[in-house]
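job 3f2a | input accepted
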Amino acid sequence: MQDRRTFLGLAAASLLPIDLDAQTSGAQTPAPRPAAELARHALTGPLEGFEAVLVEVASRPAQPASAQGQAHRHSGFVLGYVLDGQLRFAINNEPEQILPVGKTFFEATGAVHTTNGSARSDGPTRAVVFMLVPKGSPLSLPA
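job 3f2a | predicted structure (143 res):
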């Protein structure tokens, strides 16, 4: 029961809005950094063999499509929340969506993430992503 509460707590926390203005007022916007794994927890019970992973993803200001990330897939589902900027997003070659701050996105296990990156030319985009993946698996796989 405790593991289920931990899992649900991590899932809920990944969707909470964060007041970034209070933390960064007066400071310049930091340069985006690669995806940062914030937490990884092994699960037990009916989800034994899986890990809950929380990741922060940052994208540079809008770049030509050829400079954006390569198509890839994940070994588990992905649930994301846009913290800053506007995110370009599409899976399985579907039409691109532009997701503003506060919007969520979802990728089913095995979906091919075909469009990603910042839609803004004036600043980076940040998102927090919650994933449920097989224990020890990499977070991103070739398409």
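job 3f2a | The two ends are 36 Å apart (CA to CA).
job 3f2a | closed
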